[in-house]
Amino acid sequence: MTREYGVLLISHVEELANGVATLLNEVAADVTIKTAGGTSQRTVGTSFDKIKDRLESFEEKTILTFYDLGSAKMNVELAAEVSDKIILVYDIAFVEGAYTAAALLQAKVPLKTIEEQLIPLKIN
């Protein structure tokens, strides 16, 4: 049975994205959590192709995305334009927001309630 939501962590540093995924897997073992960290050349930065490929690899139709810096947001928004998935991009604190969302998805909290819980973590 396919889960309803997945989580994608996008960071300029591969190890950062993978480290946050390790943390989230401790509280959300039943949630699909994937990463798109660094560039395809394994350098600091983000990659449209890497993000697009990760998004398409999800079985879930709706993907909650969390990013660390502006160009990561730009790349995920571009990837969302060519995806048939529902891509939700959150402008919130990267680690805290992703952790909150994953833990609440694990507890089967409705998306609307999860998004309400993310509001205090918004970056202005």
Give the key terms.
5 helices, 46% helix, four-stranded parallel β-sheet, 124 residues, Rossmann fold, globular, 4 strands, alpha/beta
What is the secondary structure topology, with strand pairs?
Blueprint (H helix, E strand, L loop, with lengths): L4 E7 L2 H14 L4 E6 L10 H10 L4 E6 L2 H12 L4 E5 L3 H13 L4 H8 L6
Helix pairs in contact: 1-4, 2-3, 4-5
What does this structure look like?
This protein has 124 residues and is α/β, with parallel strands linked by helices. 46% of the residues lie in helices and 19% in strands. It has a four-stranded parallel β-sheet with strand order 2-1-3-4, with helices on both faces. α1 (14-27) links the parallel β1 and β2 (32-37).
